[in-house]
Amino acid sequence: MKPIRKILVIRFRQIGDSILAIALCSTLKRSFPTAEVHFVVNKNIAPLYEGHPDIDKIFTFDKNENKPFHVYIKKVWQVVHQNQYDVIIDMRSTIRTLLFSLFSLHTPFRIGRIKGYTRFLLNYPIDTYNKSLNIDMVQRDLLLATPLETIAPITYTKDFKLYITDTEKEEFREYMINKGIDFSRPIFLIGVTTKLAYKKWNQKFMLDILRRILKEHNDIQMIFNYAPGHEEEDAKNIYNALGCPDNIKINIQASSLRQLAALAANSTFYFGNEGGARHIIQALGIPSFSIFSPSASKSMWLPNNSTFAEGISADDILPQQKQAEMTYEQCFDSITPEEVYKRLNPIILKLKKNQL
């Protein structure tokens, strides 16, 4: 068989999904160092992957290229015919993403997820969502590289990393200093709210836990992370309810994903709701502690790698049988401030002693 020259990894959807997919890209690059690894993502999140050493080319699709189906088809056809891929890994394997394989039936390895309709176009379908597999999402993603073991040893890595330049980090650091941040003290990036309401921890509980941190660790500085709109309203309400303390900053704004990454890289720790910002934090090597909603399995979405990352979910408190008898809100509210703080405070103490 001819050498692997070009590999296409297709990973549409949100920030967290695509960040975890980096582990697959890095695995492929380490296993086939002379091959080009191309990455397909939504245009709005593509800047996160600029300059990544394991991604040679990024193909993006914006709303105007996704919605008119004929425009989408044309671009997919152009991508595969201009590159002649040896491997296509379709991480979602939807009707739309399968077009990459349909237009490239000569590709020796067309890998994706097992679904009822994928067997017609994928010659290596993988059961990545097998319920019997007690593994996290990164490990499930890495299963998509296993068919390539037939041609070469695969060097697997669970690490998923993002990269920003020293200039980007330094420029945002100066901005933070100008906004009153003291880099001789711990800086906590706080995910006080979420884009989706059903993933947001009880705001009264969030207020309670932030008060405890401020009372027992008054040297800690907090930066509230939020997006414009209802998230900003939530953040301001919590800030006002806390009495607008000097060591909380709500006016440090990242105007792009690259700036959000620079903010994360200049932080000491992340605490708050699980979401895209938390994935960025872990990908930059910053420790974190997250609160998982009942809709997001902690065992699935909190992968273990070289970066310290902990969290809490209803599964840590209640057996599945008990949860089945409760409403979604009751399960979420079982994550009380007391349960959070008894896990979080020892981490804060270790962090301040530079033991993490």
TrEMBL record:
<dbReference type="InterPro" id="IPR002201">
    <property type="entry name" value="Glyco_trans_9"/>
</dbReference>
<keyword id="KW-0808">Transferase</keyword>
<dbReference type="GO" id="GO:0009244">
    <property type="term" value="P:lipopolysaccharide core region biosynthetic process"/>
</dbReference>
<dbReference type="GO" id="GO:0005829">
    <property type="term" value="C:cytosol"/>
</dbReference>
<dbReference type="InterPro" id="IPR051199">
    <property type="entry name" value="LPS_LOS_Heptosyltrfase"/>
</dbReference>
<keyword id="KW-0328">Glycosyltransferase</keyword>
<dbReference type="Pfam" id="PF01075">
    <property type="entry name" value="Glyco_transf_9"/>
</dbReference>
<dbReference type="GO" id="GO:0008713">
    <property type="term" value="F:ADP-heptose-lipopolysaccharide heptosyltransferase activity"/>
</dbReference>
<protein>
    <submittedName>
        <fullName>ADP-heptose--LPS heptosyltransferase 2</fullName>
        <ecNumber>2.-.-.-</ecNumber>
    </submittedName>
</protein>
